[in-house]
């Protein structure tokens, strides 16, 4: 079976990671063939006929990159390619990359893609990654493929096991440390907390919520993207 690795690479870091991932797969998995597809403004592809994973680097300009002035730069051909697809049913996961020095903006583009296209952000790596990143992301790709083949859907069922954290602009996330799950950032006004029996921890500074979410992601929590809330 062919597995598409969809990516764009500005500085060469993502391409290097993809090359390393393909090499690793050739030594560890004989049932799948990883195929790299680099997206640019000249890409003619308009559909995905095989299971696919999207690798998204982070390039932002303007504002703080969170609540004001969020402007994606350089990677826009990838966004436009995904937006023009007839559907995203064959996209099984998003993998983000970036520079942790940018704190809450780390893998922010990938996080936004996950929400926009309804696809889970399954992992992340910094810059061009290291061998342990390659092995871990390979294993996470195999896990998602197994879920797809066995038709086991991702589920989002908030319970008291979740730690609910909100901020001053009524955004919230939920984290389950036991299962290593972290939610997308929700608008609190669209989420009925009382029905979920959740008691949120309130933060004073809005940007703290993003930093907490990034911290959870960088210790390999699994990203949940519910189809409905």
UniProtKB/TrEMBL annotation:
<dbReference type="InterPro" id="IPR004465">
    <property type="entry name" value="RNR_NrdI"/>
</dbReference>
<dbReference type="Pfam" id="PF07972">
    <property type="entry name" value="Flavodoxin_NdrI"/>
</dbReference>
<dbReference type="GO" id="GO:0010181">
    <property type="term" value="F:FMN binding"/>
</dbReference>
<protein>
    <submittedName>
        <fullName>Flavoprotein NrdI</fullName>
    </submittedName>
</protein>
<dbReference type="InterPro" id="IPR029039">
    <property type="entry name" value="Flavoprotein-like_sf"/>
</dbReference>
């Amino acid at each position: 079976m062919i597995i598409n690795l969809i990516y764009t690479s500005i500085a060469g870091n993502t391409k290097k990671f993809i090359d390393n991932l393909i090499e690793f797969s050739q030594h560890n998995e004989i049932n799948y063939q990883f195929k790299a597809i680099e997206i640019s403004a000249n890409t003619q592809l308009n559909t995905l006929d095989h299971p696919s994973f999207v690798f998204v680097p982070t390039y932002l300009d303007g504002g703080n990159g969170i609540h004001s002035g969020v402007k994606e730069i350089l990677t826009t051909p990838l966004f436009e390619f995904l937006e023009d697809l007839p559907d995203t049913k064959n996209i099984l996961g998003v993998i983000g990359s970036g520079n942790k020095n940018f704190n809450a903006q780390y893998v922010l583009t990938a996080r936004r893609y996950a929400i926009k296209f309804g696809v889970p952000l399954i992992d992340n790596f910094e810059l061009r990654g290291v061998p342990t990143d390659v092995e871990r992301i390979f294993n996470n790709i195999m896990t998602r493929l197994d879920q797809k083949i066995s038709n086991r859907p991702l589920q989002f069922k908030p319970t008291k096991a979740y730690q609910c954290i909100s901020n001053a602009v009524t955004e919230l996330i939920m984290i389950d440390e036991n299962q290593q799950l972290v939610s997308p950032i929700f608008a609190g006004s669209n989420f009925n907390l009382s029905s979920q029996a959740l008691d949120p921890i309130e933060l004073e500074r809005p940007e703290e919520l993003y930093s907490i979410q990034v911290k959870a992601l960088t210790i390999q929590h699994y990203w949940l993207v519910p189809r409905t809330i």
